[in-house]
């Protein structure tokens, strides 16, 4: 891929890139919609991702080009920027906006992006682009950011420049991912531990429903607000910074404070899902993939019934997986409302799985899903 990007960079800019970077996408193995509630999540980096090639220019402009999108953008170096429209280049432009608050960029830049993450699928293509840009600027200009500051900066871009109230999980996972490891991340403290995630005779199948999600236009922000409402009502009796400071047992003692039935359902999912992450880490440490798979199914059911973020497409995929003998666990991953599901699929069954799932999904939904087999890969790096 590096050679191909170099060739295209030469064609588009008339010079070779001076540096190249890669940032993966991510899937969340378990622990959904609790990152913004101070809970535990278990993401891993995948081998799909974003490549970025850069070179300085003497024109004092930033040029954004992508092999995935026809839109290009050229803008002068200046102290601040504003998001305009919904074009892809707003994500890296937001990184410049944030970095230029504290640092001077001494030269213009020619930029070329390429990604093989399905856009709008829930595999964190936006976080991958943001972290790739932040990592590249920090590395190329030696800006002095610590590793932990890169995902925090990228999250701020997503929250304030793009306008999506996401938690830290996506940006953290694509920055800190490790091969054959899952990350158990405390989204409140940012403390994390790596958990061996050797899948043995199973592979990680990623099933893209091909129903795009537009998070800023979805009910994602509504779910965030519902969780904040639950926290406010609980704080009438106990003092909490985040919902996930409670476990299921303690939550049962105070849940009567939440008077709205819908808000109660949201909080119940959050508390139970946080407990499931601890159980999942224990299962992986013990090499008990069957138990891990059972927890994946339980997570999806909770996201369907209590959090109501799955939809017909994701439910169809998980329903098929639950009846397919060579899958031991499946669930939606990401924010939902479309996007992707993941499954633990026995190796050697990839073609049969794809054929049978496609037939089932087309009959149920009316169009095919896309199926990828991925390894668990590394986080952001220069290449």
Note down, in words, how this protein is organized.
- The protein starts with a helix and ends with a strand.
- It is globular, with a radius of gyration of 21 Å.
- β6 (181-186) and β7 form a beta hairpin.
- The mean pLDDT is 94.
- Strands 1, 2, 3, 4, 5, 6, 7 and 12 form an 8-stranded mixed β-sheet that branches. Strands 9-10-8-11 form a 4-stranded antiparallel β-sheet.
- It has 2 domains: 2-195, Ribosomal Protein S5, domain 2, CATH 3.30.230; 198-374, Alpha-Beta Plaits (2-Layer Sandwich).
- With 383 residues, the chain is of the alpha+beta class.
- It is built from 11 helices and 12 strands.
- α4 (149-162) runs antiparallel to α5, α8 (261-285) packs antiparallel against α9 (289-305) and α10 (312-323) crosses α11 (350-365).
- The active site is at 170 (proton acceptor).
- Keywords: ATP-binding, Carbohydrate metabolism, Cytoplasm, Galactose metabolism, Kinase, Magnesium, Metal-binding, Nucleotide-binding, Transferase.
Itemize the secondary structure elements and their pairings:
Blueprint lengths: L1 H12 L5 E12 L9 E18 L3 E6 L6 E4 L13 H10 L8 E8 L9 H16 L8 H14 L6 H8 L4 E6 L5 E5 L5 E7 L11 H15 L13 H7 L6 H25 L3 H17 L6 H12 L3 E7 L6 E7 L3 H16 L4 E5 L6 E2 L1
Parallel strand pairs: 3-5
Antiparallel strand pairs: 1-2, 1-12, 2-5, 2-6, 3-4, 6-7, 8-10, 8-11, 9-10
């Amino acid at each position: 891929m590096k050679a191909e990007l170099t060739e295209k960079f030469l064609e588009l800019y008339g010079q070779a890139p001076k540096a190249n970077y890669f940032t993966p996408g991510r899937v969340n193995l378990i622990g959904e919609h609790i990152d913004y509630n101070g809970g535990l999540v278990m993401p891993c980096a995948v081998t799909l991702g974003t490549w970025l090639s850069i070179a300085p220019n003497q024109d004092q402009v930033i040029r954004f080009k992508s092999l995935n999108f026809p839109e290009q953008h050229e803008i002068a170096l200046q102290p601040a920027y504003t998001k305009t429209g919904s074009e892809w280049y707003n994500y890296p432009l937001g990184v410049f906006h944030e970095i230029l608050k504290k640092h001077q960029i001494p030269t213009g830049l020619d930029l070329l992006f390429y990604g093989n993450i399905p856009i709008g699928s829930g595999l964190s293509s936006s976080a991958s682009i943001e972290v790739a840009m932040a990592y590249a600027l920090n590395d190329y200009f030696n800006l002095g950011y610590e590793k932990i500051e890169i995902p925090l900066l990228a999250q701020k871009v997503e929250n304030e420049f793009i306008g999506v109230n996401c938690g830290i999980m996506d940006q953290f996972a694509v920055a800190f991912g490790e091969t054959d490891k899952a990350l158990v991340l405390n989204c409140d403290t940012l403390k994390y531990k790596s958990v061996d995630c050797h899948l043995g005779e199973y592979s990680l199948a990623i099933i893209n429903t091909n129903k795009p999600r537009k998070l800023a236009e979805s009910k994602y922000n509504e779910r965030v607000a519902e969780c904040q409402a639950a926290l406010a009502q609980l704080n009438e009796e106990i003092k909490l910074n985040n919902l996930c400071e409670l476990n299921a047992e303690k939550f049962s003692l105070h849940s009567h404070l939440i008077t709205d039935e819908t808000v109660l359902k949201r909080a119940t999912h959050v508390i139970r899902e946080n407990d499931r992450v601890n159980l999942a880490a224990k299962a992986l440490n013990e090499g008990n993939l069957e138990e891990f798979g059972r927890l994946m199914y339980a997570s999806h059911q909770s996201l369907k019934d209590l959090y109501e973020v799955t939809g017909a497409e994701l439910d169809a995929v998980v329903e098929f997986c639950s009846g397919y003998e060579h899958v031991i666990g499946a669930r939606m991953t990401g924010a939902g409302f479309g996007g992707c599901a993941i499954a633990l699929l026995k190796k050697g069954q990839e073609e049969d799985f794809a054929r049978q799932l496609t037939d089932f999904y087309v009959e149920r939904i009316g169009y095919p899903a896309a199926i990828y087999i991925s390894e668990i890969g590394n986080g952001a790096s220069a290449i």
